[in-house]
Write a structure and sequence with these properties.
The structure holds 2 protein chains of 2 kinds. Chain A is mainly β. Chain A has strands at residues 4-6, 10-13, 19-25, 31-38, 42-49, 56-57, 64-70, 73-78, 87-94, 102-103, 107-111. The termini of chain B are far apart. In chain B, strands 2, 4, 5, 9, 10 and 11 form a 6-stranded mixed beta sheet that branches. The chains are: A mainly beta, B mainly beta. The interface between A and B is medium-sized, with 17 and 20 residues.
Chain lengths: 112, 108
């Protein structure tokens, strides 16, 4: 059974803080993704990674960066959090050549 | 125009009703299509794939209309437990695009 975990379910940070969101998957998946989900806007892709140390920008990468030093771990970094980054952040993974995405439980981030 | 569009709903239906949602997409070269289900405050989970020939899984039927560029999801004999948000996903190359989701509420 695939398991994708995220470091926090709820997080509150102040404007300007550096924020790290961690995602770990235990199924040796090649591909990992970070999304944010906002009411009325659906899921929007921030960044994805097809391999260790590789990253690709998604639809809304501005204000975010990512790190993939190990295959099982994909980190999302908010260099200087802003209130418009208040959102639900979802991590997902998928094995190569398969498109079913397995999602983590999500992190609800509030920036005040 | 959004790449993938869904009516956000909510669709309020009584138990036992048949309900259908559509999802339109703008890229005619899109290759793969899926429906995901997302319960309140939970992560999305794959419901079913959508094939050109259509596919059925119990009370759920998914269809693809390439000419009109939409996919559909039909739910027969709705159950209370079907209440959720249904997200369509359209894939082109390595890019996945989610629709905004359609919320379904099944009432007793």
């Amino acid at each position: 059974d695939v398991k994708v975990t995220q470091s926090s379910r709820y997080l509150v940070k102040r404007t300007g803080e550096k924020v790290f969101l961690e995602c770990v998957q235990d199924m040796d998946h090649e591909n990992m993704f970070w999304y944010r989900q906002d009411p009325g806007l659906g899921l929007r892709l921030i960044y994805f990674s097809y391999d260790v140390k590789m990253k690709e920008k998604g639809d809304i990468p501005e204000g975010y960066s990512v790190s993939r030093e190990k295959k099982e771990r994909f980190s999302l970094i908010l260099e200087s959090a802003s209130t418009n980054q208040t959102s639900m952040y979802l991590c997902a993974s998928t094995p190569t050549a398969s498109v079913e995405q397995y999602f983590g439980p999500g992190t609800r981030l509030t920036v005040t | 125009r959004k790449e993938v569009e869904q009516d956000p709903g909510p669709f309020n239906v009584p138990e036992g009703a048949t309900v259908a949602f559509n999802c339109t997409y703008s890229n005619s070269a899109s290759q793969s299509f899926f429906w995901y289900r997302q319960d309140c405050r939970k992560e999305p989970k794959l419901l079913m794939s959508v094939y050109s020939s259509g596919n059925e899984d119990g009370r759920f039927t998914a269809q693809l209309n390439r000419a009109s560029q939409y996919i559909s999801l039909l739910i027969r004999d709705s159950k209370l437990s079907d209440s959720a948000t249904y997200l369509c996903v359209v894939i082109f190359g390595n890019m996945l695009t989610f629709g905004g989701g359609t919320r379904l509420m099944v009432k007793p």
